[in-house]
TrEMBL record:
Coiled-coil annotated spans: none
Record keyword Lyase present: yes
Record protein name field: Polysaccharide lyase family 14 protein
A Pfam family the protein falls into: Polysacc_lyase_14
Keywords for the protein's UniProt record, in alphabetical order: Lyase
Domain annotation Polysaccharide lyase: ranges: 61-280
């Protein structure tokens, strides 16, 4: 189960995982440690506390996100969730700089009694040209040809989707709007892709796995791809994308961010709530 959910592909060249149950000849096991995992640009207002889980069949350690009542996003008056970037161990990040296809995954669990409200964001993947790869989200329009970002998002009642910020080309727009069961272009320049393709109800009181694959396009050719798996099943797949226009644009790793919102109070968490994240995994495919 651990292998299927976190690594739903077979052709892995090298990688890392904090999952103690995952066995793969090309995957190195590491602890859930910020320094080892290459955590950087961490939000000082929303810490990610590391905690131990006692049950022997569950993850040994996990990061905890606390969504305070009334919190909507990292920059709001009431902070909630957490946010940082993750590039993996130094040796992995070095090889990732030359990779054109990679997969990143994690497991998550929502606390008992979870209330969805209108929706919120979950960790995903990011990339781009140098520092332009950071801050690709939140309505940014400038230099969007130099970054890409794809995260999971939940909506009311646990309805889930892939929320993307890709270069603003007509081809990317057309490809995203074709993905079933529903796709929308949002006012903040992000796209809701495959809304309703899966549901996160099963994440309440139980661990579930999300895996993200990104394949860079050849420069000048729209042949990039992004794919999301939920519990080992491919639920959203985008093809024929332009994720970059130069060789300088790279896969950078994970945008490990989660919060309620939205940017207005009606998105806020209705009460203090908690979620846990663990089994962080990254692998280079080519």
């Amino acid at each position: 189960m651990c292998l299927r959910g976190l690594l739903p592909v077979n052709n892995v060249l090298t990688g890392f995982t904090t999952c103690t149950l995952l066995e793969h000849a090309n995957i190195v096991k590491i602890p859930l440690d910020d320094d080892i995992l290459g955590v950087h640009k961490s939000s000082s207002r929303t810490p990610h506390r590391r905690l131990s889980v006692d049950a022997p069949t569950q993850p040994v350690q996990a990061w905890e996100a606390v969504y305070s009542q009334g919190s909507i996003n990292p920059s709001a008056d009431i902070p909630g969730g957490f946010g940082f970037y993750l590039s993996g161990p130094t040796w992995f990040a070095t090889q990732l700089a030359d990779a054109t296809e990679a997969i990143f995954s994690y497991r998550m669990m929502l606390e008992d009694g979870w209330e969805w409200a209108k929706g919120g964001k979950l960790p995903g993947i990011s990339g781009g040209v140098g520092d332009m790869s950071y801050g690709c989200t939140g309505g940014r329009k400038e230099k969007r040809c130099q970054c890409f970002n794809a995260r999971a998002m939940w909506r009311a009642d646990g309805v889930a989707e892939l929320y993307t910020y890709l270069p603003l080309t007509s081809g990317n727009k057309d490809r995203q709007l074709l993905v079933p069961p529903r796709a929308l272009e949002n006012a903040d320049y992000g796209f809701s892709v495959g809304r309703g393709a899966f549901n996160l109800d099963s994440a309440v009181k139980s661990w579930v796995a999300l895996a993200f694959r990104v394949k860079l396009n050849d420069v000048g050719v729209d042949n990039g791809e992004i794919e999301l798996w939920f519990e080992g099943k491919s639920v959203v797949r985008l093809i024929e994308l332009q994720l970059r226009e130069s060789e300088e644009s790279k896969i950078r790793g994970m945008h490990f961010q989660t919060f309620f919102g939205g940017h207005t109070p009606d998105w806020a968490s209705p009460k203090d709530q908690r979620a846990r994240f663990t089994d962080i995994t990254g692998a280079i495919i080519q």
